[in-house]
Amino acid sequence: MRDLILASTSSARRALMDGLGLPYRTQSPGVDEQVSPLHSAKEAVRELAERKARAVHARNPEAWVLGADQLVEVNGQTLTKPEDRGAARAQLGKLLGHTHDIHTGVCLIGPGGQHFEGLETARLTFHAVTPDELERYLDLNEWEGCCGSYRVEGAGQALLARLEGDRSNVQGLPMVTVVRLLRQAGFSFFERR
Ligand SMILES: Nc1nc2c(ncn2[C@H]2C[C@H](O)[C@@H](COP(=O)(O)OP(=O)(O)OP(=O)(O)O)O2)c(=O)[nH]1
Asked: What's the EC number here (predicted)?
């Protein structure tokens, strides 16, 4: 049985991997997530996904390690996870009534140094809502730990006017891409245990 590690502290990513049914374990990447301000959002998530995977692989060289990173891009600005409710209000203020992209980079590193990577973008359009409705949504605390301050699988779907792309990508892992990388790496599925 292959040793697969998800290099993530994200409960959303764990939930998505749990659904896939492959045996895996998790480890925190514990990396500095600073990247050059000259990087585009896509370059940043690609670099950080690899940085996370390589950091955990360095501690577990015999394992397969999957890392991921996500950013929201709107009007040329990149948004990550909000620090507090005020930051979440400001983020949603940029997204409501507009269209934004959410990019997720994924990187799979193997015991022999094998390296597979992918990047997926989903495009979301949000309804414009009143300030009172925004405050009511913020009261639900779905903004906590979420890039862009919303949960597409939660109450946040009431904000969604249009979604183009892989919904699981918005949640944190583009599972169509993750499955492609795992199959490219030779993983087999539905093993009898
Ligand atoms: N449940 C849920 N989580 C979301 C949604 N959109 C974004 N997120 C979460 C997934 C990730 O945990 C987080 C993206 O931020 P990062 O890529 O920096 O990952 P994070 O630091 O959370 O975990 P990691 O670096 O993998 O340990 O936002 C959503 O619609 N639903």
From this structure: 3.6.1.9
Contact, 185 vs 116, CB < 8 A?
A: yes
Tens of pLDDT, residues 159-179: 999 999 999 999 999 999 999
Can you tell me the ipTM of this complex? 0.97
CA 163 to CA 68: how far, in whole Å?
A: 21
CATH code for position 179: 3.90.950.10
Q: Does the CB atom of residue 13 touch ligand 1 within 6 A?
A: yes
pTM for this structure?
0.96
Helices (H), 60-138: 85-95, 131-138
- Which of 3, 69, 84, 101 is an active site residue? 69
How many angstroms does the Cα of residue 190 sit away from the middle of ligand 1? 27
Residue 70 beta carbon below 6 angstroms from any ligand 1 atom: yes
29 C-alpha to center of ligand 1: Å?
Answer: 13
Per the structure, the count of domains in the chain is 1
Residue 192 lies in a domain: no
> Where does residue 139 fall: left (phi above 0), alpha (psi -120 to 50 degrees), or beta otherwise?
alpha
